[in-house]
Amino acid sequence: MPLSTTRLALKDEKVKVVFNLYDGRRLETEGKVGDTLLDVVVNNDLDIDGYGACEGTLTCSTCHVVLKQPDYDRLPEEAGDEERDMLDLAYGLTDTSRLGCQITLTKDLDGLEVDVPESVNDARS
């Protein structure tokens, strides 16, 4: 398969993602490999109040999600310094907290489940 065809195939590959909301709703959707969780919320027009207010610029912490340990352990990258600084301001911080704008989907993350906290702290205010 030519390289350009391989890139195209990967670009269109999708994985399943589940957002568990504090009110008991479970939003099951798909996201493209290479997109962030914030992209998934926006591209699928998911009804998650206040999620991603800064549009992924690492200035608000409103896309804070909590992962179960097994899902957290399979993330391809650890949180960077800027993300950790912003997480310090997040509502309901846990050891497995991450910002959705910093989690990029890979094939290995198919079936990823994240919990969305009950409230948000918008660090911009």
Automatic annotation (TrEMBL):
The protein, known as: 2Fe-2S ferredoxin-type domain-containing protein
Compartment annotation: Mitochondrion
Pfam families for the chain: Fer2
Cofactor: [2Fe-2S] cluster
A GO cellular component entry from the record: mitochondrion
PROSITE patterns for this protein: 2FE2S_FER_2, ADX
Domain 2Fe-2S ferredoxin-type residues, every copy: 15-120
GO-annotated molecular function: 2 iron, 2 sulfur cluster binding; electron transfer activity; metal ion binding
GO biological process, one term: positive regulation of ecdysteroid biosynthetic process
Keyword hit for Mitochondrion: yes
Family from the record: Belongs to the adrenodoxin/putidaredoxin family.
InterPro entries: 2Fe-2S_ferredoxin-like_sf, 2Fe-2S_ferredoxin-type, Adrenodoxin-like, Adrenodoxin_Fe-S_BS, Beta-grasp_dom_sf
Function: Required for ecdysteroidogenesis in the prothoracic gland which is necessary for larval to pupal transition.
Gene3D superfamilies (UniProt xref): 3.10.20.30
Species of origin: Danaus plexippus plexippus
Keywords of the record: 2Fe-2S, Electron transport, Iron, Iron-sulfur, Lipid metabolism, Metal-binding, Mitochondrion, Steroid metabolism, Steroidogenesis, Transport
